Amino acid sequence: MKRQGFLKGSAILLGMVFITKAIGLAYKIPLTHLLGGSGMAYYSGAFAVFTPLLAAAVSGISASTARLTAENMAFERYTNLRKTRQCAMLLYSAIGLLAALLFIALSEPLAIRFLHDKHAALALAALAPSILFAAVLSVERGYFEGLRNMLPTAFSEIAETVIKAVLGLTGAYAVLNYAETEFSETHGCFGQFFRTAEEARAFALPFAVTAAVLACSLATGFACIYIILKRKLGGDGITPAQLSSDTLTDSCGHISRRLLSFSLPIAGAAVITTLTGTIDLLTISRGLDSALSAGMKTGLNIQTSALPDFIYGSYTGLALMVTGLVPTFTAMFGKSALPSLAEAWSREDSKALSVQTVRMIKLTALIAIPSGLILTVMPEQVLSFLFKGRTEEIASASPALAILGIACIFTSFALPSLTALQALGSRLAPILLMTAGGIIKLAGNLLLIPQPALGIRGAAISTAAAQGFIAVSALLLLFRKTETRSHLSAAILRPAFAALLGTAAARLTVDVSQKVIDVSSESRLLFSISAVFGAFVYVSALWLIGVLPQERISGYFYKKNS
Questions:
Q1: What angle do helix axes 391-423 and 6-58 make, rounded to 10 degrees?
Q2: Residue 535 in contact with residue 503, Cβ under 8 Å?
Q3: Which of 113, 125, 149, 356 could form a cystine bridge with 107, CB 3.0-4.6 A?
Q4: Residue 348 and residue 477 in one domain
Q5: From CA 403, how far away is CA 388, in angstroms rounded?
Q6: What backbone torsions phi and psi does residue 250 show, to the nearest 5 degrees?
Q7: Would you say 249 and 79 are in contact if contact means Cβ atoms under 8 Å apart?
């Protein structure tokens, strides 16, 4: 099997993320239209409760398996490599099964405590099987990633996303359609009687969300089956000659202890990260209640009693969803760099460590900085492009998205940097950084959201502050760990300058067009034109200031025209 380098592996994972996020948007946008702000509050709330346990049980599995696999490959311990996968599968499957059973048992009290609706327990229980499936899937993905083969991860992610989208939309639509039909015929819905169709729909929302989240479990199960069949039928590229060259293996207990020593700190950091959603779940609605009582004006045509949940659902379902797209891309740089960094660290190759680090940070900057700036200077245009017609939700989420654009840049740098630190053996640093970030986030929410002048923007400010602290601290630690001191100007500052030019060009295009002609009915077209023009200016600036390889690009066009 031909092993993939950092750039090729990153390209495969980026392609995968692009496809899955495009499908995810094609799923989330109609789902938001279907469920509305209140329904998305249920949906986001279910995942806010679920993801900390999922992170505790599953996070770190892929990275720890990939690290030990890469280490065994570096020292040509092929038999031990196979045994590592087997031990990882036994260990993490058992953990995943126990976590799934625990979550099913706790689903009703968690629904009552955090979602304030016992019917939401069905949604939580429907998510539980995905913990076991995700554990098995993470072992298989980590094994292939450690072998520097990113294709199984990419294809399984795409299959999982497609199935989730199709089944999720179909299930949610079927439930709401059934509720509407049942009410029109009998004025009843799921055994209850209602005076208005709106009341029946509100009662049906938790059941529609259950159908949508059940699709997540089914999709993860299908992806699990795919990647297992891929390994069984296609193999892993390890030859019989390689296996017979070194038959010594470590005990399963020793391998399991090493796996846990790597995965537990990652899981701890991931749990703290996911608690950001839980912090928002617990503090936003209450903070907004206080802000509304103090005289906060929203300009939304929503009943005052429903405003906190509506704003929370719009914030999580629109603003946070859009903000989370870019860090998902940049996190792939850390995933792709992990095997190379682990091998270089094992061999004490300081030059390779520095080269890989600079390359990872530079690619992150090229994507993260312009994307975050666009969200900051054109939040309403971005949301209108994606969620046209959801006027109230867009008006609610746009001010927060303008601030979250900055948080997006910080998060995009933090994720690959933390992954790299973990690959280099820094087990406690990510946990300490994420804990400090969580404290900043919690304090910011409690202090800022109740302020009438801020409201939901207080949650965005606290997120930006927390992610800023984590990103800067992680980068400084990573540079010190890898002894990376040079080329940082080309890696961060130059892309930032080009991104400012491109963003300014895009914003200027919108402003001038709106003054010259009436483009309100063609807002999507205008945003598309401004984005293309801004991208052209950005790429041109990168080329002129030497960030892009001028000789290679010129040579490509010269050969093409000759």
A1: 100
A2: no
A3: 125
A4: yes
A5: 21
A6: -80, 160
A7: yes
